[in-house]
Every structure is written in structure tokens, then in C-alpha cells.
Specification:
single chain, alpha/beta, two-stranded antiparallel sheet, about 25% strand
Length: about 230
């Protein structure tokens, strides 16, 4: 199956701005990876349009899928990178898909004056919340966001990822499967891109050396049930 247009655009725009790189990188986990995606560098108008359009298309598709995402009220973007991504995606869900939701994000430190609290934007109390995250390796950021939303009285019903690295997580299963379990099962964590999509792009563009390194990494750390 070929890549969707928005997937190809995100890969190519990511490479153009240096957000997606192929080479040798040491991850927080200590693993040596043949690629790295730094979403913080997706920081221009055109690239933000590409990314948020991809998030919106992925969410709209997942809401119609079975099993898929349940309906939700608020998009939650963990600070700091998630803030513009959540705002842009809420805008494009409304403009391009007729899906109207609020957006919220967290403060790094709780505010003790004004309205107070740890979250900003649409109040999450009593609401169904979809967490928006960039790259999931161990799922730490998603788990942190779930804790924040739950503490503020909201219910996290799913998460949407920019990139699933498709690696084995803490329990020996893929990180995605672990987070899905946490959020109610299959279909609760749609992703724009998976590691296998990057490999498909490399193959289509004849980049055999990088593809071989990705394949080697996949054999070592890949969550095979995701393939």
C-alpha cells in the first residue's frame, strides 16, 4: 500500500527543515537509532500547516474507523511543543473536516493567581479528551498527559501520535499497544507515521543504505506485532 499524500508531505517537509534525519543518534533510552525526528524544528507556517493537516486527517479517519477513536470534546497538547500543534489541529479539524472541538495545554508550573490551575484553554473537567503527542518511544509524555488531565477532572479517551517508532516497550509489547491498553483498547492511538512508513519512503526513493540500517534496527528493537 502506498503512502498517503499527507504522510509523504510530512516526511519530505520534515527532512527539508532538518527535523527528520537519517544517520546515527543516541536516544534517551540508550539505544543507537538510525533516524531521529525532532518535532521542535517543525516551526514554520508551511510545515505547521503540513503537520496539523496530517493530524487532522488522521483524527477524522480514526473517528470513522472500527475499532477507532470515540468522540471527544478537547484536544490536549502537552507543553511546550504540543501547544501550537493542538491549536493548529483544532483549527484544521473545524475548517477541513467540520469537527468542532476545544483545545487545552498544561503549564509547567501551577498558577496560584487568576484562574489558577495547571491547564490553560478549554477546561477539561468533565470532558472527553484526546491527547496529541509527537514521537512515542517509551510513551512517557502520553502517560504524563493522562495524569495531568485526570487530575484536572477530565477523561482521556485516546491519543494521536505524529510518529510511532514501533519499538518494544517496558512490558515487552509495543509502546503503542501498552498505551492503547491504558486508554481502552485497539484503535485508541492512531498515528500519522510509523517507522515502517519511513522505511517504505526510503525504499521508494532508492535510499538502500539508510533502509538497510533501518531494517537492522527493526530486527533488533521492532515490535513485530505492529508490522
Amino acid at each position: 500500500m502506498s503512502l498517503e499524500k499527507y504522510q509523504t508531505e510530512l516526511i519530505e517537509h520534515g527532512m527539508t527543515v532538518g527535523a527528520l534525519k537519517f544517520g546515527t543518534f543516541t536516544l534517551k533510552s540508550g539505544r543507537t537509532s538510525p533516524y531521529f525526528f525532532n518535532a521542535g524544528l517543525l516551526a514554520s507556517g508551511p510545515v505547521l500547516d503540513t503537520l496539523c493537516s496530517a493530524y487532522a486527517a488522521t483524527i477524522a479517519r480514526a473517528l470513522k474507523a472500527s475499532p477507532g477513536l470515540p468522540a471527544f470534546d478537547v484536544l490536549f497538547g502537552p507543553a511546550y511543543k504540543g501547544i501550537p500543534f493542538a491549536a493548529g489541529t483544532a483549527l484544521l479539524l473545524h475548517r477541513d473536516h467540520g469537527i468542532d472541538v476545544g483545545f487545552a495545554y498544561d503549564r509547567k508550573e501551577a498558577k496560584d493567581h487568576g484562574e489558577g490551575g495547571i491547564t490553560v484553554g478549554t477546561p477539561v473537567k468533565g470532558k472527553r479528551v484526546l491527547v496529541l503527542d509527537d514521537v512515542a518511544t517509551a510513551g512517557t509524555a502520553i502517560r504524563g498527559a493522562i495524569d495531568t488531565v485526570t487530575r484536572e477532572g477530565g477523561e482521556v479517551v485516546g491519543a494521536v501520535l505524529m510518529l510511532d517508532r514501533q519499538e518494544v516497550g517496558k512490558e515487552g509489547k509495543s509502546t503503542l499497544a501498552e498505551v492503547e491498553e491504558l486508554l481502552g483498547g485497539k484503535g485508541r492511538v492512531p498515528t500519522i507515521l510509523k517507522m515502517k512508513d519511513l522505511m517504505k519512503w526510503l525504499q521508494e526513493h532508492g535510499r538502500t543504505e539508510e533502509l538497510a540500517k533501518m531494517q537492522e534496527y527493526w530486527e533488533k528493537y521492532g515490535a513485530k506485532e505492529d508490522s
